[in-house]
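Lecture notes, continued. The same structure-token format from the folding unit now serves as the input rather than the output. Read the line below as a description of shape only.
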């Protein structure tokens, strides 16, 4: 364990004794720890603002509080610059196979819809806009300015992004989670929880739905079921095209996020391999999108 992280955690004004600290695996924009103090357990997330990824920890705190008030996420116990302490939920982290299962997918759709409809009602203070196409443009400028080895691809990728943006409207706006990886869903045996609000902000619901599908390899049939279940109406050709455009945008944003992380992150993670995997998936999704577009 990082001695500085351990010292930071032990110095928090929360503990009744000497807390037990253990590393939680999985964080790729911050570091996470389980802390047991007496009979109670907590999650401590350490991470400062990450301007290159447009991450504001104040936004994360506000979104986490709103999500808890909406009944979809654990409670915020404490925060200070660089530190967020949450109630620990004894639960199993889902994997993509879980998400693809019929039983889980139906529960997840209900949870995501609740997030979209209710979390924003409880958000207090200035709220973020998470607009994938702006983020893609910003990432491309960062990569070009830093002389990234991926710079030669940027002109083509930006042209594709602009086509997607023109194809994905008109846009509905909801308060989105914007990072629906399987690992951000927890099952405590009675209910599901949605965690990690680093990228939360107002967005089209199609971004979360497309990200959910692409992150967890849903089949085409499952994607159509997802849209009809979420919107509670038959799927139209127009919605299918708009959805495919936003699904592509979610994959391209994730690709460029990883390319930027190759340059800036100090977390032990194979970003280069992750970049190439997501780039390949983006190209395949874009080819499918072009077939669906009139």
């Amino acid at each position: 364990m990082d001695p500085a992280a351990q010292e930071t955690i032990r110095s928090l004004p929360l503990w009744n004794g000497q807390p037990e600290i253990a590393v939680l695996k999985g964080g790729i924009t911050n570091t996470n720890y389980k802390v047991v103090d007496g009979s109670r357990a907590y999650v401590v997330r350490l991470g400062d603002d990450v301007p290159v990824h447009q991450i504001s920890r104040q936004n994360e705190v506000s979104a986490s509080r709103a999500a808890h008030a909406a009944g979809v996420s654990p409670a915020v116990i404490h925060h200070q610059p660089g530190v967020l302490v949450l109630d620990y939920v004894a639960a199993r982290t889902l994997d993509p196979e879980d998400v693809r299962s019929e039983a889980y997918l139906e529960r997840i759709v209900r949870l995501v819809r609740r997030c979209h409809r209710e979390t924003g009602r409880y958000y207090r203070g200035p709220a973020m806009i998470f607009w994938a196409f702006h983020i893609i443009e910003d990432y491309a400028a960062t990569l070009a300015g830093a002389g990234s080895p991926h710079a030669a691809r940027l002109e083509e990728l930006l042209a594709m992004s602009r086509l997607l943006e023109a194809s994905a409207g008109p846009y509905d706006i909801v308060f989105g989670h914007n990072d629906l990886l399987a690992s951000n869903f927890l099952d405590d045996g009675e209910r599901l929880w949605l965690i990690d609000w680093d990228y939360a902000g107002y967005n089209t619901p199609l971004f979360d739905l497309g990200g959910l599908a692409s992150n967890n390899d849903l089949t085409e049939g499952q994607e159509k079921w997802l849209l009809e279940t979420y919107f509670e109406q038959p799927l139209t050709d127009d919605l299918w095209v708009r959805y495919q455009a936003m699904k592509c945008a979610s994959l391209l944003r994730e690709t460029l996020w990883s390319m930027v992380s190759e340059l800036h992150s100090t977390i032990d993670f194979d970003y280069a391999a992750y970049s190439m995997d997501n780039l390949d998936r983006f190209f395949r999704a874009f080819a499918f999108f072009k077939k669906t577009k009139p």
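Point for the exam: The longest strand covers residues 31-37.
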